[in-house]
Design brief:
EC number: 3.1.3.2
Radius of gyration: 19 Å
GO cellular component, one term: extracellular region
Strand order of the largest sheet: 1-6-7-8-9-10
Number of helices: 8
Distance between the termini: 63 Å
Subcellular location: Secreted
CATH class: Alpha Beta
Order of helices and strands: HEEHEHEHHEEEHHEHEE
CATH superfamily: Metallo-dependent phosphatases
Bound molecules: 2-acetamido-2-deoxy-beta-D-glucopyranose
Structural class: alpha/beta
Helix content: 25-40%
Largest sheet: 6 strands, mixed
Main location: secreted
Strand content: 15-25%
Organism: Digitaria exilis
CATH topology: Purple Acid Phosphatase, chain A, domain 2
Length: 263
């Protein structure tokens, strides 16, 4: 009996360990066909959810016009989808107030592929990843790390917030929702391994990485050392053409001699 309960306790411990430690596996891959002529046109936006304030509505209006002119196929969001602290839950009205009711132009009624930013991690992070939101607005496709294959291009979406150590260690900073992510080292190791395998398998002409945080930056936030150390080598080794990010609220175009460009 004593042995039996010890075995049971061990089994429970293993199960708990499996539930807590995100296992390595293939990155989820979504398919989005290109146009009939093989071309593709997308808009990228980041750092936006302000219930229309901070000129969000004005930017949305211009996105609608440009989206029409370019006949866009989809929209990419580089994260910080809802300020200041993400969503409080799937019933948070900010979802409609900052997304559905703002991006009303006809050309923007396409899928939106979104990653999370640091502000999203300050709320109920699972809410943004929940399929419940897609029932409210089917455009909203937010995941942690995933691939969108659009024939000529593979987009590799990377969850960059867990890379930055200061979010884990800053006691005076806001609360971060690390459910499904902690422990950090294991999460990052699995993510980088999955990403490396996925990019190696890619046969698309263009390979583009998307994340929230800066890799190189000449603006407010500066370089993100953890991304330069851990993520950049994986992108470089596998011939990723460029990296698109948000976080700095300005436009930068950084190119380097060793090929990888950030926008
Ligand atoms: C909105 O845009 C106007 C015009 O470009 C600018 O003057 C104003 O400061 C902006 N408002 C905010 C809150 O950023």
């Amino acid at each position: 009996m004593a042995k039996g309960s010890a075995a049971m306790a061990a089994a429970v411990v293993v199960l708990v360990a499996l539930l807590c430690a995100p296992a390595a596996g293939e990155l989820e891959r979504l398919e989005h066909p290109a146009k009939n002529d093989g071309s593709l046109s997308v808009l990228v936006v980041g750092d936006w959810g302000r219930k229309g304030t901070y000129n969000q509505s004005r930017v949305a209006e211009q996105m609608g016009k440009v989206g029409e002119q370019l006949d866009i196929d989809f929209v990419i969001s580089t994260g910080d989808n809802f300020y200041e602290n993400g969503l409080t839950g799937t019933d948070d009205q900010a979802f409609e107030q900052s997304f559905t009711d703002i991006y009303t132009a006809k050309s923007l009624q396409k899928p939106w592929y979104l990653v999370l930013g640091n502000h999203d991690y300050r709320g109920d992070v699972l809410a943004q990843l929940s399929p419940v939101l897609q029932k409210i607005d089917s455009r909203f496709i937010c995941k942690r790390s995933f691939i969108v294959n659009a024939e000529i291009v593979d987009f590799f979406f990377v969850d960059t917030t867990p890379f930055q150590l200061k979010y884990w260690t800053h006691p005076k900073d806001d609360h971060y929702d690390w459910r499904g992510v902690a422990p950090r080292e294991k999460y990052l190791a699995n993510l980088l391994k999955d990403l490396d395998e996925a990019i190696k398998k890619s046969t698309a002409t263009w390979k583009i990485a998307v994340g929230h945080h800066t890799m190189r930056s000449v603006s407010d936030h500066g370089d993100t050392e953890e991304l330069l150390k851990l993520l950049l080598p994986v992108l470089q080794a596998n011939g990723v053409n460029f990296y698109i990010n948000g976080h700095d609220h300005c436009l930068e175009h950084i190119s380097s001699k060793d090929r990888l460009t950030s926008i």
